[in-house]
Predict the 3D structure of the following.
Amino acid sequence: MKENIVLFMTKRLAVRRLHADDDYLLYQYSGEESNRELPNEVFDSIDDVRKHLDLVIANYRRMQYPLRYAIVLKEKNLLIGTVSFKRMPDYNIQLNIMIAKEYRNMGYATEAVEAAVDYIKDHRGVEEVYALARTENMAARNVMEKAGFLLLTEYEADWFGMVSTFCKYKV
């Protein structure tokens, strides 16, 4: 049974639980070149997506982090991205967002991030919300700044043999 449990809505978007029917679009979006910098967003096969969705759905039942949700364009009832919440060691939340390439530069990411921050603070009992963006990813950095995040620091990280410089933001 498909569960369309909606966490929150904005003027143009709904954020709901992911379900098995989202497998094809998640797989399609993971192949976009710009998503290659997000290791948790890249899948080698549709079977990998299905295994990932099984874990995501199980985490909903246990309310175990990380929690990942679908960003849906209300007008078309179409999955256009995902937002995830990861519990940090200090019990605050790190927010991550992915918007499909064809839906970027339309304000959807900023709209989703602003609403996600409000949701986290109102419903998850946290004081601080963090986000990361690659230093060279100006679009992501602009989204964070438009959504009210402030740059805390820039640092180098070696993820999966790939050294990158990241900006850590806090709102």
User: Anything to note?
Assistant: The chain has a mean pLDDT of 87. The longest helix spans residues 46-62. The CA atoms of residues 110 and 144 lie 7 Å apart. The first strand starts at residue 6 and ends at 9.
